[in-house]
Amino acid sequence: PAQAREGQVGLEESFQPAEVQEGDEALLEGREDAGHRGEVEESMVLTKFYVSKEQEKADRDIEYEHRRFATQWKQSQLKVQNLDVQPNAGLPKNWIKEVDPSSGVEMYVNLKTGKRQIEHPKIQRLKLKLGKRMVSAQKQLNQKLQQIASFCLRLKAGQAAKLRDLEKEKWSIIDSVYKKEDVRLNRVGLSLNVDGSIR
Prior knowledge:
Shape: rod-shaped
Mean pLDDT: 76
Order of helices and strands: HHEEEH
Structural class: mainly alpha
Helix content: over 70%
Number of helices: 3
Largest sheet: 3 strands, antiparallel
Low-confidence stretches: 7-23
Strand order of the largest sheet: 1-2-3
Number of strands: 3
Radius of gyration: 41 Å
């Protein structure tokens, strides 16, 4: 029984948690530093990925705006081409139709201004109206493209600032690791070279 008790005590002592040694502490700290550095590097990758996706979206928006404007312009051109204004259609005030004596071509004459033209005045007015609409549409397109360009500039500036901060944090971790390693080696009479090797 006494021997059994002694054996039991020895067995219990053998299962007591061992004290954390200095090397173990360094290992745990190293793992924490490596984990932190991994998180920082992952954040850098995610930042670049997010910015690239936003840039792709901005490029698609620019392409869409150009296509939309081109479609509007084409539709306006078709409207002008498909105008069905009969030669005898009612003329605006001060306009008359006559035949040019020298060429025999029918002309439209403005009695007030003396302006002469082959094209029916109503068609010309509609063209001017559509032209003004397209000028307005062009301004809207330019404003939209400017907004997208400004967004892209802010996006890139934000990315650069974020990556700079993450880069500083990463090198701070690396510097901390080297300092801890240098301290640990100094305790046993060793030190680190500039390239990180042990001397």
